[in-house]
Amino acid sequence: MNIFSKFFKHGSISSDPEMQFGRFTDTYKSEEKYKIWDEAIEDFENEKYLNAYIHFLDYLSNELQGNIKYVYSNGKLSFTIYQGSKIIEGEADFHFFKAEAKIIKAGTRHSGLMRKLLEDNFNLKYARYALDDEDTIYLKFDTFVEDGSPHKIYQALKELATEADRKDDILMNDYPGLHTVNLHHTRQVTQEEIKVKYNFFSQSVRAVLFEIDNGQLDAKLYPGGISFLVLDMLYKIDYLVKPEGSIMEKIREMHEMYFNDNMMTVHEKNTVIINTIRNFEKISVAHFSKEIYEVSSTFGMSMPEGHQRLIEIVDAQMTDIDWYTKNKHYIYTKAICGYITGFSLYSFSLPKPSISLLQLYYHITENQYFSELGFNDVYCDAKGNFNKLLIINKINLIIKENKEKYGPITINLKMLEFSDMHTFCRSYLLMLSKMKYPEY
After folding, report:
1. Is residue 318 located within the same domain as residue 336?
2. Is the alpha carbon torsion for 88, 93, 94, 98 positive or negative?
3. Do the domain assignments include residue 60?
4. Residues spanned by the domain of 341
5. Of 27, 31, 308, 366, which has the most beta carbons under 10 Å away?
6. What is the pTM (predicted TM-score) of this model?
7. Which residues of 336-371 are buried (b: 16+ CB within 10 A; e: fewer)?
8. Same domain, yes or no, for 254 and 344?
9. What SS3 state is found at 144?
10. Band of the pLDDT at 116, cuts 50, 70, 90?
11. pLDDT digit string, tens, across residues 132-156
12. Residue 426 has what pLDDT?
């Protein structure tokens, strides 16, 4: 967003809060960053190892995130990398490259915990678990600089950083007597924001459970519909609320279980997810508040994909959307549309215009939540009335803001239908499935 569109939006100064939605992605970088990467490769090939690592860290750095710090002095490079709730510290000289991340402090050396970490070491390609003299569990990686190409260092640090970031919550839940470390760099949010997010989280959970327990759809006869309902909620919570602790980890577990476990039926998978959601219902505001904080990250987890991937997902679910609509199961029509939106944002790093348009979908369909967070634009009021002009103007603005990088994107706004919410949701995603980037 350029300075004029930010400060003179709708003829007045914008007072929308600066707020993060969705998980960090490092997929799309500027041309300048790619040039820095090329310089790192060239220096490494010319055996200028420390210069290569300095360029490498510059490539990883994000000025807005403030995710990288380093100092080079007397032939030694020391650096700090932030990844979520974890800090990766390392150094390099003319012989070695080393990095480590403290995860958690163990009060006692629980035999089950030690065995678990030993087993986990076999699943790691670059890093390994270790225990220091103060009983702090940490991940470490080291290599001779001759073997530490920027490609290898990137993969090693990504494995170390992402594994460390998620491991503390898993261990805290599974083993008693553990203590967190290195949380001073996280940024706390206001109590008002936590309250709004907790209410949205709780209302979303209760709405899904009410539909499952009291709705007309038979969960055994229509397990696919139930899947759309529960997955829509999980992805929506992950993107819009963005919890950083055990809730985030449970959502990740349910996502992986649903799509990777080939031994369970859809009905069995639904049962596991529903039980998890019932446990979400028991989460207190005190517990919830500990998981809501802002972080800086360096490595993203989602896979880079073009807009074509979103087209394929919409096309694959359109038959289901039309069946549930035809049979007047409108809650499930909207749930499938929400599933498409959430699954796409959760699983893939799509082009920026596609991400922005999917987030706009959330803003329109969950307008009350955004309003309570302090956002000004009202795309749909409490009675379900759409502000057609505002929606169309926002879509045009997104296309315009991305024209310089992506070229003229073709989108047919006439496909939008505003008669009711489920009809709008279907038409909006259908419109996105027909949207074309210049390269297609």
Report:
1. yes
2. negative
3. yes
4. 189-434
5. 366
6. 0.89
7. bbbbbbbbbbbbbbbbbbbbbbbbbbbbbbbbebbb
8. yes
9. strand
10. confident
11. 888 899 999 999 999 999 999 999 9
12. 98
C-beta neighbour count of 401 within 10 angstroms = 16
CA–CA dist 54, 60 (Å, integer): 10
Domain membership flag for residue 18: no
* Residue where a domain stops, chosen among 157, 180, 203: 180
Q: Are residues 315 and 421 in the same domain?
A: yes
Is residue 348 domain-shared with residue 255, that is, in the same domain? yes
For residue 373, give the amino acid letter.
Answer: L
* Whether pLDDT at 85 is above 80: yes
Please write the tens of the pLDDT for every residue from 247-261.
999 999 999 999 998
In this model, does residue 8 exceed pLDDT 50?
no
Domains held by the chain: number: 2
- For residue 9, being part of any structural domain is answered with no
Longest dimension (CA), the chain: 73
* DSSP assigned state of 306: -
- Domain boundary, last residue among 133, 158, 180: 180
* Contact indicator for 208, 230 with CB cutoff of 8 Å: yes
Check whether residue 55 and residue 139 sit in a common domain.
Answer: yes
116, containing H or E segment: helix 111-121
Q: Which long-range contacts (CB under 8 A, 24 or more apart) does 257-265 make?
A: 258/227, 258/231, 265/223
